[in-house]
Structures are given as C-alpha cells and as structure tokens.
Amino acid sequence: MARYSRLPGSVALITLHNPPVNALSAAVRQGIVDAVQRALKDPKVTSVVICGQNGKFCGGADIREFAGPMSGPPLVPMIHAIEAVDKPVAAAIEGVALGGGLELALGCHYRIAHSKAVLGLPEVTLGLLPGAGGSQRLPRLIGLTAALDLITTGRHVSAAEALKLGILDQVTDNNAVDLAVEFVRSVAGQPLDSRRLSTLPCPCPPDVDSLLDKVMSKVRQRSRGALAPVACVQALRAAASLPYAQGMEKERELMATLFNSGQARALQYAFFSQRVVGKWSLPSGASWDNSTARTISKAAVIGLGTMGRGIVVALALTGISVVAVETQEKQLAEASRVVPAMLQREAGRRRLATPPGVISFSSNLQDVSEVELVIEAVFEDMSLKLQVFKHLASVCRPGTLLCSNTSGLDIDQLAAVTQSPGLVVGMHFFAPAHVMKLLEVVYGPRSSPEAVATAMQLGKRMGKVGVAVGNCPGFVGNRMLKPYLEQANFLLEEGATPQQVDEALEEFGFPMGVFRMSDLSGLDVGWRIRKEAGLTGPGVESTRTRQGRRYSPLPDQMCEAGRLGQKTGKGWYQYDGPGGRVARSDPWVDIFLETYRAEHGLVARSITPEEILERCLYALINEGFNILQDAVAAGPEDIDAIYVFGYGWPRHRGGPMFHAGQVGLGRILERLNHHHSHPDVPHLKPSTLLRRLVAAGSPPVQKWREFINKERVHSQL
Ligand SMILES: C/C=C(\C)C(=O)SCCNC(=O)CCNC(=O)[C@H](O)C(C)(C)COP(=O)(O)OP(=O)(O)OC[C@H]1O[C@@H](n2cnc3c(N)ncnc32)[C@H](O)[C@@H]1OP(=O)(O)O
C-alpha cells in the first residue's frame, strides 16, 4: 500500500509501504494511483514527495507477482500520470531505487537521494528489460552511452555516481525526505516541461549506429544465448531513433516477448535460489534461524598457494586481521610480495579503501594460537591435511574453529584428529578465491550448528553465496562434475573431438567447454585425485574398465605425455607456449585419439551436439538427483546456486535441476534409460528420486523439497 499525508506548508507525502523492500505490488500501485489523485485534487497541495517506508525507497516490481496473473493498475500509465502532474513531484530516495523503483523515480520531476542509496535498472538480470518506461526515459536523461552501460549490465550505482551521471538532482548525508520536502517547496509554481523526461530528446554520440552495433556484439559474446541483454540494446536503439511514444511501443513489444520466456523464469528462479540457500538447514534440524554464529575478528590461513592467497585477500577485505602462514620460505616470500598487491587491486575493483595492515605473514604455525578461526588451505592431500589438523589441534586455543579448504576430501576424517570435532567444517572456495562468489560450507556428521552458522556468516561477510552441503566425496559440485567429465571422455573414445564437445557446451551457454576448462585448471589436478583413488598409476592395468566400471584412461595418457594444459602450452588444445591463453586445435590430439581408438578396437562414429548435451548434462543432472536423495543438498535450489555461481552454468538456464524441470523430467528419464541401455554407457542409470518424481506426475522444482521430505518419511528413498 501507499500512505498519504499532508505536511504543514502544502506538501503531500506519499510513502510506499510494503516490507521488506517496498516492492510495487498490486496494492502498492493502487495506493500510489489513489494518493496521486488525492494530491492533484487537493487545491492546498502545491507539491508532492514520494518516499519509501523504513529507509528504503523501492526494490522495483514485486517479482513474486510475475508467476501469476497480473492484477491492479499497470506501472506504465501510473508513471505517465505522475509525470503529467502539474505540481512538482520529487522522489526522496533512501536505501534502494531499483528496477520499477527507479522507473517510478524517473517519472517524478526531481530526484533527491541519501548518499548511501543505490540505484539501478537490474531487470536484465531477471530476464527482462526496464519495461516501465526506463528504457526510454533513462537515455533521455543521461545519454545513450551511459544508459546502455547501466541497462545492459543491470549494475547498481552509488548515489555519488548517479549524481555524476545526472540521474539525481541532489544528494545528502542527512534525511533525504526532509531535503526533498524543502526542495519541492522551493520549486513550487515553476514550469515543469523540461523536467518531463518523456518530452526530451535522447542525447546520442555522432556514431550512434556503430556504438549500438558494438554494444550488441559485446552483450552477445558476454551472455551467449541470453535474450534480455539483446532486447535491452534493441529498446535503446528505439530510444535513440524514435519519438518517445513509438519507443514505448517497442519497449512494450520486446517486454511481451521476454516476460513469458523460459529464460525470464529461469533468471527469476535464480534470484530466489540465491536467497533460499541463505536460509540453510541441516538434516539434524539445525538451521539459519535457530543457530548462533560467532563473529570473527581474527583468523589464520595455513598454506599460501593460489587458493590460500585468495582466501587471505577475501578475509582481509572484510576487515578481519589475518595471520597468513606458509612453512616453505620461498613460497612465503612470494606470497608476502604478491598478496598485498592482490588486496589493493581487489579493493580498487570493489571501490573499497584498502584495509590497512590487517595481514601478518609467518612461517611459524605457533603464530595462529590466538586466532578465533583457522582456514587450512594446503595441498589437496589427505595425509598432509591430517598432519596440519593434528598440529592445529595442539597449537590453537580451545574453542577455535578449524576449517579446511578442500574440494572433496572427508571432513569427518579431519575432525577425528582434533579434540573438538564439532568445531570442524569444510570451506570449499573456488579459484580465484577472492573473486569467485561460491562457497560450499561442508558439514560433517559431527559439525556443530554453531560452526556451520559461523562459516556461513563469514562467507556472507566475504560477499560469497554460501551453500551448506553434506560430507561426501566431491561434496555437491565436484561430485556432479565427475559423471559429466566421464561422459565427455567417453564421447572422445566414441568419435567426438574436444572441439565438438566444447562447442556444444559453449553453445548451450557455458563460458568454456569441459576440455578448454580442463586445460585452464590443469589436467594434473584430476590425475592426482585418480592416482590417490587407485584408478591410475604404476601397477594399474591400462584397461578401459577400472574398479568394475567403464573408465577412460585418455586424460591420464595426456598427462603421461606431459600435456597438462595451458601451463605446459599443450593439453586438449595447443597454445602459444606455456601459460598461453588462446586455444587452437592440435593435430597431435586427433592422431592421439585415432591411435587410441585403434588400439582398443573402437570405431569412431559421428556424434551430434544433441547427444553431447544429453550425455554430459543429463549425467550431471542425474547425479544431482542422487545428491538430493542422499540429503547431501537440502534442495534443488542449493544445487542450482552451486552450479550458477561456481561452475559457469548459464544463469539464464536457472541451474541443472531447474533445467531438468524445463526439459521435462519424463524426457530426462527416457533419455537416461536410452543411454543406460546402450552396452557401453553404463553410468547413466537413472536415480530413484527421478523415477519417483516422474511417477508422481513431475511436480515443479519448487515442490521437490516437500516431495523428498514426504518420500523420506514414508521410507521411499
Ligand atoms: C518489468 C520489471 C520491473 C519493472 C522490475 O522492477 S523487476 C524488479 C527489479 N528489482 C530488482 O531486481 C531488485 C531485486 N532485489 C534486490 O536486488 C535485493 O533484494 C535488494 C537490493 C533490494 C535488497 O537486498 P538485501 O537487503 O540483501 O535483501 P534480500 O535480497 O535478502 O531481500 C529481502 C527480501 O525481499 C525480497 N525481495 C527483494 N526484492 C524483491 C522484489 N523486487 N520483489 C519481491 N521480493 C523481493 C527477497 O526475496 C527477500 O525475501 P525472502 O526471499 O528472504 O523471503
């Protein structure tokens, strides 16, 4: 709703009231329409201020309403009516003015904001465009070039930047509503024509077409296959070339196409998934709202390789003092030189002041004795990690939280060598750890709710999307990656090339296909893990079956040939020397694959992009169902957030589990059965949960949690 009040001295104040972010629900829109009418009719009112309750102007349209039939007054005529008012109307912006919230403010004649406010048109991140006139008014206000940047990225800007861009008229460190009231009083009676943005021309650079073409190719490259960024550029082309009314017609047409698209549904689901994972719960019943986190002010990181350095920077950026420990002198010296520069760069990128002197470097593990939390980030080797944990248990004061940055090792085994296993959790960061958003917080059977809550809160402070996951080999992300990688290797055996596989995946929307990604991260990473698992190495017979399952020795053989990826200048592709970044196909790999197939009596066949996608993606999705069934992830949103934020799953496809729902669970089951029945693809046995969901009529992804809980109660899973 919206509250109407008359302030002394003829100013009408309209206050949006819809906690927590004053989203423009049907009731709020109706409230605004009624209040504006009242202000218009009241002869004693000479000016109007619109603000939001509780220090938040408006978070935009109510996204939850998008799923159902629209009711209440539409936004576009409501904003037109405000712009047409013949008394000055000012938006008093505190907190946020996002999406429809900013579009509402653009319909006002003046915009006054608090210095801490953030503004933006993030509709593109929800698969939409600023369809309440924003795509036509903003470029008229700040020019085409700046509007293209804000609208195609959806980025938020500070009040200071908004003032510089010309979005705001005034910014204050004091009360924005008071200033807006004072301001509208001062301009009452002045002409408003030049303040109505719809009547203004759109300032454009002389080479407008080439600018639009350049931005179009950039957005196509940046978010391959995404519809909304393309539509945003089209709407802005209309703003640059058409009168306002025709521009609005184009905005409406484009919006109609986007609004019911699968991509918009996927992106809105991704928005809510990110929030759902913050409300974590464990099978024990412990959850975000019944567990208390400790506030950490002093932490330590053990091991200053690539991961450790990134973690130190991520912690330091929050203002936590960090003891950074590395026992190898050479590595320590390099880290002491590199980490402060990384910190400064990242602080600059985030527009933060560099936290002064919060990191101390040491080669002595004793120096962690006074910290409240330790993150061990040594090499991914269980015996080494066990040694470090034993040492930590003797050095740290009682009650210190001990975390391991591991990508899949057993947290419970680490906890077992400490005196307080309840205080041990996994914190699986993704490289580069100071940049990547995802954090898997891994709880073992003995991890206390307090330890999980603290790790989750610490993740939030570091700006991460933390997802609480259970303890199993590979946790969620890497456990699902395993069958995906296996299928990719099997496809090479059967006749595909690395380029064919990568192209199919990149066409789907991944920034990098699986082989390009392997080259980037280093083929030796998986090799080491497979050696530890006894799947390869001296004494292991070179067959295509290992430990009773089909196995492809192709990646091992690449490593044995010294082709470790970008770092050696050669992997599944060739590069311009070690450390090269540009992948080119390599005839050596073609010959290698042909020889391999001949040795194993395999006849290459032609493989379609559809088969590549089915084999790789459905294998990954199937493991996702197994993970849900095993209660390693609390719900499909957790898996989807992990894949979107950590594994490059295209956000406009929601995540693997959402995608499964979009494709149709019946179809996924049918294709898995098809491939599973093929004698040489035995790994794709459909999960019991998938079968039960299909048998239950394939409920939508939002209902799976409830379904799983019921099945568990009735012991069906
Ligand atoms: C056409 C389309 C038009 C005209 C649009 O306007 S589309 C909407 C454009 N607006 C946005 O994209 C803003 C979305 N919201 C946010 O970015 C953030 O929520 C925030 C910056 C406004 C606040 O962030 P924060 O303080 O961290 O809080 P949360 O993100 O946790 O949100 C709190 C709860 O509010 C719910 N929420 C937020 N925005 C909306 C919205 N526009 N519609 C409906 N609900 C919204 C959010 O889901 C949280 O609720 P719970 O999920 O916890 O129940």
From TrEMBL:
PROSITE patterns: 3HCDH. It is found in: Peroxisome. Pathway: Lipid metabolism; fatty acid beta-oxidation. GO terms for biological process: fatty acid beta-oxidation. GO terms for molecular function: (3S)-3-hydroxyacyl-CoA dehydrogenase (NAD+) activity; delta(3)-delta(2)-enoyl-CoA isomerase activity; enoyl-CoA hydratase activity; NAD+ binding. It comes from the Eukaryota. Monomer. This is Peroxisomal bifunctional enzyme.
